[in-house]
Design a protein that fits this description.
It is a single chain. The protein has 607 residues and is α/β, with parallel strands linked by helices. The protein has 18 helices and 17 strands. The strands form four sheets. Strands 8-7-11-5-6-10-9 form a seven-stranded antiparallel sheet, with helices on both faces. Helix 14 links the parallel strand 12 and strand 13. The longest helix has 48 residues. It is elongated and about 115 Å long. The structure holds flavin-adenine dinucleotide. Flavin-adenine dinucleotide binds next to strand 8, strand 10 and helix 13. The site of flavin-adenine dinucleotide (FAD) has 20 residues, from strand 8, strand 10 and helix 13. Belongs to the ferric reductase (FRE) family. Its cofactor is FAD. InterPro entries: FAD-bd_8, FAD-bd_FR_type, Fe3_Rdtase_TM_dom, Fe_red_NAD-bd_6, Ferric/Cupric_Reductase, FNR_nucleotide-bd, Riboflavin_synthase-like_b-brl.
Length: 607
């Protein structure tokens, strides 16, 4: 159909909508009549556009009409492509989530098939993409830019590739189909206006499309965690990078429209640009800023609603979770040198799972609004309580520690609530050998997995390796280790002590509540008296454990464990960032060489 035919059809349809009917013949006749009276304005002398009225059809230069047509086409095409690419950027994430879901559910539903996936492609994929850190050994450990600025967590290699892919797509879709029309745009009359308009619309539309993802990936109640098997730490990484992309797009959008305003109004910042500037600078008022911005445009509220709904839903579920748990008094006690043990009565219907964690709110005057994540230790056979082991750091944990230090026996009942349980259970039950490797206060996660495995599976090779700094650190986890001893035929436990020190005081009923002063900076080395290790080995409840001095040689241990594995191997770590990074790197290398299926699971304590 020619453009002329299309135009006729459009006019007939539009007029019909207004109850005015034209036939093709009538239109042709009107056209012929009008062309008969056409006036070329360039030939009318002394014509004043704002004062003179004209009642004749006007002749336009066909070149101008063509440019005009192209100008509108570019404008509407840009809207169309912005939408299309916006959908594309969300579809990219849908694809990533679908891929991760396939990997996750195949491990859960078809463990035997997955265990047989040990061919060179599968090994290379896991060894070079899925398992390693982006830059060999740098995932959890602190990274400094120019040796000074802490740049936080570097995503794993798989996460980095996903993020790089997203940024590459964003870059491409920000510039695709953006071009000035030749001969000059008739709507945006200068080249600068034309480009500002195209870029401003494109970046703005792309920003609103990804905005709901920023909210969705950040929420504690992100239902995608259970569906895709992606853990919260990875979602946090994706959230941060999408949020950065959103900020860049919002900045480009604001800059482009401010540029237009400046050209139109001679450097005067108009209301529109002001709103844009406000929501750029005050990121914290992002939702409100966007709302005002979209209100002015009278569109894109759907994305606002979507993002706001996700945010409100998350807040609502968080409140419901707290209410469901209640606000009991928890017994908080300093135990060992720098650990607080919290025992909380829990409702009967409230269930945790291995590796689950909760956000705890301590209702103390100065910090009641803070909530921090801690791993749940469900005591074997104890249906009434849950336990948390909290390492004293420098914020809320130190505040509670200082409060407890002033209490009799360094113990007090504090009203708390918990929000959770969060996280997801890793499919460790599906592997024939499970290596659980913990460092310091990272023991709760691997321990709960060990307890789950020994009580729910048969014929598995289960190993728990725990590295502590001083023998005294055993005090606070004595009860749990003693409980695991009931399953000593099913699980081998190795404890490494790097500094040695005095004999722990296990007390008559398990642990003593001997408190110590915190000296995190102390570099003093205590020479380990050999008999401390022997004495501990002689404690009956711990006699099933092998105690070693010094740091474990993880590479060597890993090599041996893989060698002696009967089938697929799951390696889980939780501990010091450097230890986890080293382990991750070694697992990646060995995956490439071994013909056994090896998967790596990290339960990191960074947020
Ligand atoms: C899934 C998971 C499970 C965990 N399990 C355990 C466990 O079982 N035992 C254990 O000891 N630790 C665990 N942690 C780590 C624990 O959450 C931190 O050690 C704790 O939050 C430290 O609190 P702090 O205020 O004393 O922190 P510091 O890290 O010393 O913080 C110093 C200051 O920074 C603020 N701050 C710290 N982190 C954040 C943040 N993310 N957002 C905003 N402000 C922040 C603090 O409020 C404080 O003002 C876990 C972490 C995660 C993610």
């Amino acid at each position: 159909m020619s453009i002329k035919d299309k135009l006729e059809k459009y006019v007939i349809k539009t007029c019909a909508a207004q109850n005015v009917s034209y036939t093709n013949e009538e239109l042709q006749a009107a056209y012929r009549n009008a062309t008969h009276y056409l006036v070329d304005m360039t030939e009318v002398e002394n014509y004043n556009v704002s004062e003179d009225y004209f009642y004749s059809p006007i002749y336009h230069d066909p070149k101008y009409v063509k440019r005009s047509f192209e100008s509108y086409k570019v404008l509407y095409d840009n809207n169309y492509y912005s939408w299309l690419y916006g959908i594309g950027s969300v579809a990219y994430w849908a694809g990533v989530l679908a891929l991760c879901s396939i990997f996750h559910w195949s491990k859960v539903l078809f463990p035997n098939f997955v265990a047989r996936c040990t061919g060179p492609i599968s090994r290379a994929w896991r060894a070079t993409v899925v398992i390693p850190a982006a830059l060999d050994r740098n995932h959890l450990g602190s990274k400094y830019l120019f040796g000074k600025f802490d740049i936080g967590l570097v995503p794993t290699r798989f996460e980095s590739l996903v993020i790089l892919g997203f940024y590459a797509i964003e870059l491409a879709i920000n510039v695709a189909h953006i071009y000035p029309i030749s001969g000059g745009n008739t709507i945006r009359t200068t080249r600068a206006l034309e480009i500002y308009d195209l870029i401003g619309i494109r970046s703005g539309v792309l920003a609103v499309w990804i905005f709901p993802l920023v909210m969705l990936f950040a929420g504690r109640n992100n239902f995608l965690i259970s569906i895709t098997g992606i853990n919260q730490a990875s979602f946090s990484a994706y959230h941060r990078w999408i949020a950065r992309a959103f900020t860049i797009l919002a900045f480009i959008h604001s800059w482009a429209f401010m540029g237009m305003e400046i050209i139109y109004h001679d450097v005067k910042l108009a209301g529109y640009a002001f709103i844009a500037l406000v929501h750029f600078i005050f990121g914290i008022f992002c939702l409100t800023g966007l709302w005002l911005h979209c209100w002015k445009l009278r569109s894109y509220h759907e994305w606002e609603f979507c993002a706001a709904a996700i945010w409100c839903f998350d807040r609502f579920v968080r409140i419901v979770r707290c209410l469901a748990f209640g606000v009991p008094k928890g017994n908080c006690r300093i135990i060992g040198e720098d650990t607080i043990k919290v025992i909380l009565p829990k409702p009967k219907y409230w269930k945790a799972f291995p590796g689950a964690f909760c956000y705890i709110y301590f209702f103390r005057p100065a910090r009641w609004w803070e909530s921090h994540p801690f791993t749940i230790v469900e005591s074997d056979g104890d249906e009434q309580n849950i336990i948390f082991y909290i390492k004293v750091k420098e914020g809320i944990t130190l505040y509670i520690y200082n409060y407890l230090m002033k209490q009799p026996d360094h113990s007090a009942n504090i009203r708390v609530t918990v929000e959770g349980p969060y996280g997801r259970q890793q499919p460790t039950r599906k592997y024939s050998k499970v290596l659980l490797i913990a460092g310091g206060n990272g023991i709760p996660g691997p321990y709960t997995h060990a307890l789950d495995l020994v009580s729910h599976t048969l014929n598995k090779q289960i190993r728990l390796y725990w590295t502590i700094r001083e023998w005294k650190n055993l005090e606070w986890f004595y009860d749990e280790l003693a409980k695991l001893g009931h399953y000593k035929d099913k699980c081998e436990v190795y404890i490494y002590c790097t500094r040695g020190g005095d004999m722990p005081n296990f007390g008559s009923s398990g642990c003593s509540s001997e408190a110590g002063s915190i000296s995190k900076t102390s570099k003093e080395k205590t020479i380990m008296p050999m008999n401390t290790q022997q004495k501990i080995s002689n404690v009956e409840a711990l006699s099933y454990i092998r105690f070693e001095n010094g740091r474990p040689d993880l590479k060597h241990i890993l090599g041996e464990e893989i060698e002696t594995a009967a089938g697929s191997i799951a390696v889980m770590s939780c501990g010091h960032p450097k230890m986890c990074d080293e382990l991750r790197s070694n697992v990646a290398r060995m995956t490439l060489k071994s013909d056994k299926r090896i998967d790596y699971f990290e339960e990191n304590q960074l947020w």
